Amino acid sequence: MGNRHNRAAAGAPLVLALALVAPLLAGCGSGQAPAQTGAPPPPQVTVAKPTVRNIVDQDEYVGRFTAVDSVEVRSRLSGYLASIHFTDGQMVKKGDLLFTIDRRPFQVVLEQVRANLAQARANLAYTENDLARGQQLVRDKTITEQVFDQRTQAKRVAEAAVKANEALVQQAELDFEQYSQLRAPIDGRIGDRRVSPGNLIPGGTTGSTTLLATIVSIDPIRFEFTFDEGAYLRYARFNPPGDDPTKRWSSMQVKVKLLDEENFAHEGHMDFIDNQISQTSGTIRGRAVFDNPNGLLTPGMFGRIQLPGSQPYEALLVPDVAVGTEQTRKYLMVVDGENVARQKYVTLGQTVDGLRVIKTGLERDDRVIVDGLMRARNGTKVTPQERGAPSPGGPTASAK
Prior knowledge:
Elements: H1 2-30, E1 44-48, E2 51-55, E3 58-67, E4 70-74, E5 79-84, E6 91-92, E7 97-101, H2 104-139, H3 145-179, E8 181-183, E9 188-190, E10 200-201, E11 211-216, E12 221-228, H4 229-237, E13 253-257, E14 266-273, E15 283-290, E16 302-308, E17 313-319, E18 324-326, E19 329-335, E20 341-352, E21 355-360, E22 367-371, E23 383-386
Parallel strand pairs: 1-23
Antiparallel strand pairs: 1-22, 2-17, 3-12, 3-16, 4-11, 5-7, 5-10, 6-9, 7-8, 9-11, 12-15, 13-14, 13-16, 14-15, 17-21, 18-19, 19-20, 19-22, 20-21
Helix pairs in contact: 2-3
């Protein structure tokens, strides 16, 4: 009895608490539900219309610099190398003395052939006088016709001997005065000496002669490269031959950059395109010419050449960061009149001053998302903020 009385007394406060909470719960149920949290606003993006600019497509090729003139210095004469008159690697002018071969043997030969020539001329003078006397004697019947013919023949042989000895003198003079002293045939930079003084040099006009040094011209310098048949057709169509076909390509301005340069800083012009396409590679050889007053450009050096690949045309350009990639396709996100992001697949051109040329897929009035591309989804609303299009450049621009 006592335990039941204690449990009843302990449960009284709990019943009272439930009685007090029940009206509060009922009141909450009968009122309006609390307001739910609102949906997030559309993401903000920055949009801009494409830049319109007149540009020229630029093609780029890798090639090498080559000298306009290149000469291997070799001796026509065999002999001992007496002296060298240049410093390895120096600039030389046409006519500068480079090597001297021991000249004494050639001087001896020259004096010898001059003496032979004097003897031949003396013999000719004798035969001429003898023939002149024979003309009177044959008229007087003092000598026979046969003897007169013999004197005539002797004069002709003497004349031939004089001419032969004159030729030998000319050759000996060339050997002594010119060929024994080797001079620079062109302006340019000479390489290092290949032979030291005192060595015997085999001479002649064949490939077995000794190479003494090489000279290459420096200013101007050529740049040679190759390109395919399709490129050749494009260049040929907007460079008609005109009245002088040899000057067809000279008006085509080009630029080149070196291995350690970021910009195409060296300007030149096309000089020559070969007359046939290689059947092996399907390419054709082209050549440009550049001024090189400071000698920076060196034959054999690699470079990248840039030349016009089209006529000037009006192009649409957008910032390169606005271009997205979907597997192998490129796209832009544009905002329509209802502020809905739409995906447009485009064909890209080259980069010009940090802007990307859009060949196809974009309209002039499209509002392109240039900032916030990752926040936009195709078919969803966005909050666009207009941004002025990048300031247009000049009438033409070169690709980087």
